[in-house]
Specification:
The protein is an alpha/beta fold. Helix content is 33%, strand content 18%. The protein contains 27 helices and 29 strands. Strands 1, 2, 3, 4, 5, 6, 17 and 18 form an eight-stranded mixed β-sheet that branches. The chain has an eight-stranded mixed β-sheet with strand order 22-23-25-24-26-27-28-29, with helices on both faces. Helix 16 packs across helix 17. The protein is globular, with a radius of gyration of 32 Å. The termini are far apart. The structure holds flavin-adenine dinucleotide (FAD) and NADP nicotinamide-adenine-dinucleotide phosphate. The site of NADP nicotinamide-adenine-dinucleotide phosphate (NAP) has 24 residues, from helix 5.
Length: 867
């Protein structure tokens, strides 16, 4: 392709595609004063709704939410006729918006973009059209649609068919006449399921060629009253917020309850209610784990199968229609009389998994066991989704590398936020791969992407920045994130177009971001607010600033899983702990982070005596014959919050892996019980274990103390107390990111003061509740780092986290122990945050740390034995 010199006009931005995305992008940029040109292959606006004119085509998100929200005026001037509008009405809406905003004057129709090449010297793109002409643009924005590249399977004999052939995604403008004809439909995805009931009514005979049966629920479509629409528009600001910060872009979400928590009768009642109500998410939103847990999923799946059995009269046909994959791991489908259609005399179902299609003949379809004569053949066979439309353009970035080659292997598909990819500066992909797009109400995703890109371009112009590009580090991070999140669910366990599995030879890999549109928006906004972290850019040639390259910065080495947890916690919108009362702060539930508790041979809850009272303990005894070594464990929580449940999961894991009894101690909390109560309770508990060892199957010679955070502080303090107050003698101390000093003057406090789960302010709040006065803070039983002499203490394991305000004081304590001659193993988990030790439900590193601690304990215990 010739370079810029031979090109035609120069634009600030070229947008490819005139569907919902491209039209709004044009509007935003034009309003901001940029010169923009949109190129569209079709002869008019509409995108999806221009091309997919098949009978029965309608939206699956309620129309009142499946529209633009950026303009109150547009909202107020439009009404929808029904809950799920049909394609012609949606297309009219798009035309109405295009007219209202006078968009067509900047759109060149009937023009396909065939190539786009980045010019490194000029820092701009040359865009080439199918008529051989080209233009130059600074920003190249793809609004190609995720589902715009139709998939017609390469079946032998395809071109020999004498009848009419259509693909749902390339439907002709004229009405297709099915009357009295023998019609075949291949495909039973959303498109097929919408088209089949309508075609069946008209056709002489309809044969459906089904490869995979589908779950589908009734849409329960109905006309909308104008009054209802008006009311929705009146409260739209609030509705909009709910949509924007939701999982799927609708103003409601799942009930926070597992399907397994309800009785079968209650589940049946709720599923039946959802079936009657209709809607895309109604059934799944009864519970929050249908897409996560196979057992929960099966409750919904079997309900739908039972409905198919009820509806379809012929049991053999019903059986063929029963899906078995995990429900909702393909985009859920809603229908109008789909299963009922198989009760019609003129409809037959062919299972092409049992008897595959051999070839298309001039007269119809030949399967391995039959021949079907057809006049019309409809392909409802879907799309080469997400990457398909991008790969149809020869997009070349820096060093002439093509996007197709860069992403040749599925595991290599790397984007940053689904918006950009390294090596392709100034190129933005609207609803691109690895964004939430297809998993959501696309309108919410589209508006969010367009707004983000428009704001970004404003920023670049204001700061005289050019060649804006995602870094390799950022895209590796994001891609890892996308895979990790998808893998947490059942989404990756099904062959679907989300996985690229519908196209022969397409590399497999989950193509979207499954963390939800709300979280995604927060992440994108956060990255923009940090000066577009994860992107690099270059100062404009004509800038007066003499610094050459303005490197973007990226969020250091934080572990992607930990970062995701932080963003989720942030998006939950909980107030900082220091603004709560201790009672309220204690109500926080982090059990999801801890994960499922594993079985331990015996778990006993009891109380033990301490000075002036008694406290609860939980004793975990592993399988096997005692006496066992023991770990006395103190939970974290800044001496103010936390309890036995907080650390139940790691205690179970430690008991099983270290083969020791774990006695978890519920010491009394501040501010009701200030310093030194927690320390004294902890010491009393350790002494109780030593003194009552036989009664709990413990070997008194092999007792360790340990804990995390404030619990690590207590473990260190108990070791000091035991040395100074006559025992017992401990085999080991296991200090997980311990608090060791009442001071805030370390680098880790400065670097990690906020944004990494435990904040400096929260730590100040904890200390203030715990200590009676400043003097207490100097007491080694509060700040063991200040103890004059640390010699003679038990060997220690000190684990710290890179992104923890307490990192440096933990490591300083390890250094002092070493200097005092105490054997110490110290490990920093670089990418981790405070608290990670009790988050094995979501962090792989928690498993590593727990295994490390268990091995260290085992070794320490066996060292005692050999003495
Ligand atoms: P599109 O509407 O696909 O527009 C992309 C445009 O780019 C097309 O017009 C195409 O011609 C043009 N184009 C592509 N490549 C080139 C090129 N090289 N040169 C020039 N032009 C090019 N989503 C929902 O959220 N809810 C729904 O109910 C829903 N229903 C759907 C129903 C169907 C039948 C389909 C197929 C999809 C549906 N979707 C739905 C997804 C739908 O695609 C989006 O909601 C939305 O319409 C996408 O808008 P877009 O502008 O991003 O892409
Ligand atoms: P799809 O979901 O990919 O379904 C394609 C169908 O064709 C599947 O049944 C598939 O079978 C079958 N198929 C594909 N290749 C085949 C082959 N070689 N031989 C035989 N059968 C084959 O495509 P779609 O129905 O067009 O929907 C795509 C997406 O568009 C939807 O998921 C949705 O996001 C959107 N959409 C939405 C609506 C709506 O309700 N608003 C309507 C239409 C589309 P397998 O399952 O075995 O692969």
């Amino acid at each position: 392709m010739a370079l810029n010199q031979q090109s035609g006009r120069v634009f600030d931005a070229v947008v490819v595609g005139a569907g919902f995305s491209g039209l709004y992008m044009l509007h935003r940029l034009r309003e901001a004063g940029y010169s923009v040109r949109v190129y569209e292959a079709a002869d008019d606006v509409g995108g999806t709704w221009y091309w997919n004119r098949y009978p029965g085509a309608r939206c699956d998100i309620e129309s009142i939410y499946y529209n633009y929200t950026f303009s109150k005026e547009i909202l107020n001037e439009w009404t929808w006729s029904s809950r799920y509008a049909e394609q012609p009405e949606i297309l009219s809406y798009i035309n109405f918006v295009a007219d209202k905003l006078d968009l067509r004057r900047d759109i060149q129709f009937k023009t396909r973009i065939t190539a786009a090449r980045y010019n490194e010297e000029n820092r701009n793109w040359e865009i080439r059209m199918d008529d051989g002409t080209s233009v130059v643009t600074e920003y190249f924005i793809t609004a190609l649609g995720c589902l715009s590249s139709s998939n017609i399977p390469k079946i032998k004999g395809l071109d020999s068919f004498k009848g009419e052939m259509y693909h749902t995604g390339r439907w002709p403008h004229k009405k297709v006449d099915f009357s009295s004809k023998r019609v075949g439909v291949i495909g039973t995805g959303s498109s097929g399921i919408q088209a089949i009931p309508v075609i069946a009514k008209e056709a002489g005979h309809l044969t459906v060629f089904q490869r995979t049966p589908q779950y589908s629920c009734p849409a329960q479509n109905h006309p909308l009253e104008e009054e209802d629409i008006r009311k929705t528009w009146e409260n739209y600001d609030e509705t909009k917020q709910l949509m924007r910060y939701s999982q799927h872009g609708v103003p409601y979400g799942p009930r926070m309850r597992s399907a397994l928590e309800d009785s079968p009768e209650e589940r049946e009642r709720l599923y039946e209610k959802a079936w009657q109500e209709g809607g895309l998410f109604t059934l799944t939103y009864n519970y929050n784990d249908i897409a996560m847990l196979p057992e929960s999923n099966e409750t919904a799946a079997s309900f739908i199968r039972s409905k198919i059995k009820q509806i379809v009269h012929d049991p053999e046909v019903a059986q063929k229609l029963m899906p078995t994959y995990y429900y909702a791991t393909k985009r859920p489908i809603i229908d109008t009389n789909y299963f009922e259609t198989y009760n019609r005399e003129n409809v037959s179902l062919v299972d092409i998994k049992a008897a595959p299609i051999m070839e298309i003949t001039p007269d119809g379809i030949k399967t391995t066991d039959n021949e079907y004569e057809l006049d019309v053949l409809v392909f409802a066979t879907g799309f080469d989704a997400m990457t398909g439309p991008l790969f149809k353009i020869d997009i070349r970035g820096k060093n002439d590398v093509s996007l197709k080659d860069k992403w040749a292997d599925g595991s290599e598909l790397k984007t940053y936020l689904g918006l950009a990819t390294s090596g392709f500066p100034n190129m933005f992909m609207l609803t691109g791969p690895q964004s939430p797009s297809v998993l959501s109400n696309m309108m919410v995703s589209i508006e969010q992407h367009v707004d983000w890109v428009a704001d970004c371009i404003d920023y670049l112009r204001e700061h005289h920045l050019e060649a804006f590009e995602a870094t390799e580090k950022a895209e590796a991070f994001w891609s890892q994130q996308c895979h990790a999140i998808a893998d947490m669910s059942l989404l990756t366990k099904t062959d679907s177009w989300y996985m690229g599995a519908n196209i022969d030879g397409k590399p497999r890999g989950f193509l979207a971001f499954a963390g939800g549109v709300g979280l995604y928006r927060i992440i994108c906004d956060d990255i923009a607010a940090r000066g577009y972290e994860g992107f690099t850019s270059v100062l404009a040639h004509d800038s007066t600033d003499d610094s050459k390259v303005k490197e973007g910065f990226f969020m250091s080495n934080i572990d992607p899983q930990a970062w995701f947890i932080l963003k989720q916690l942030e998006s939950a919108g909980a107030p900082p702990m220091e603004l709560l009362t201790p009672e309220l702060a204690r109500m926080g539930d982090f059990s999801l982070l801890a994960g499922a508790p594993e079985e331990v041979a015996k778990v006993e809850n009891r109380t033990i005596p301490v000075p002036e009272g008694e406290i609860p303990v939980r004793i975990y005894t592993p399988a096997g014959e005692g006496p066992f070594p023991a770990l006395v464990y103190y939970h974290g929580g800044g001496w103010v919050i936390g309890n036995l449940d907080t650390v139940d999961v790691p205690c179970r894991m430690l008991a099983n892996r270290a083969g020791c009894v774990v006695v978890s101690v519920d010491y009394r909390l501040a501010p009701e019980h200030k310093f030194p109560t927690a320390a004294e309770d902890s010491y009393a508990a350790a002494k109780w274990v030593a003194e009552n060892a036989a009664s709990i199957q413990v070997d008194p010679e092999r007792i360790a103390v340990g804990g995390d955070s404030a619990g690590g502080n207590l473990a260190a303090v108990v070791a000091l107390m035991a040395r100074e107050q006559g025992g017992p003698s401990f085999a080991y101390q296991m200090l997980i990111y311990p608090v060791t000093n009442h001071a805030y003057d370390t680098d880790s406090y400065r670097d990690n003061a906020e944004g990494y789960f435990l904040t400096k302010n929260t730590m100040v709040w904890f200390w203030n509740h715990y200590l009676r006065n400043e003097e207490d803070g100097q007491n080694p039983y509060a700040s063991p780092l200040l103890a004059e002499d640390l010699s003679g203490l038990p060997p220690a394991l000190v684990i710290t986290a890179g992104f923890d305000p307490l990192r440096d004081e933990g490591e300083a304590y390890a250094e002092r122990l070493k200097a005092a001659g105490v054997p110490v193993e110290v490990t920093r988990y670089d990418g981790m945050i405070h608290g990670f030790f009790w988050m094995p439900g979501v962090l792989a590193e928690a498993h590593n740390a727990i295994n490390q601690a268990a091995n260290a304990l085992k070794q320490a215990f066996s060292a005692v034995k050999t003495i």
